[in-house]
Amino acid sequence: MTVNHHELLRSASRTFALSIERLPGVVGEAMCLSYLLLRVSDFLEDNDYMPAERKVALLRLWDRILAGQAPAGELIDQLGDRPPGDDADARVTYYAAEILEKVHALPLAVQTQMLVHVRNSTQGMARWVARGPDIPREDDMDDYMHEVAGRVGYLVTDIFAWYSGFIRGRLSQLMPLAREFGLALQTVNVIRGLRKDYDRGWIFVPESFCAAVNLRRSDLFKPEYQIQALQVVDLVADKAERHLQKALAYVLALPPWLHTLRLACIWPMLFAVRTLALSRQNVNVLVGEVKMTREEVKAIVRDTTLFGWSNRWLESYYQQLKTVRAAPRPPAGGAAQLAKA
Question: Which domain range does residue 74 map to?
Answer without folding.
Answer: 1-132
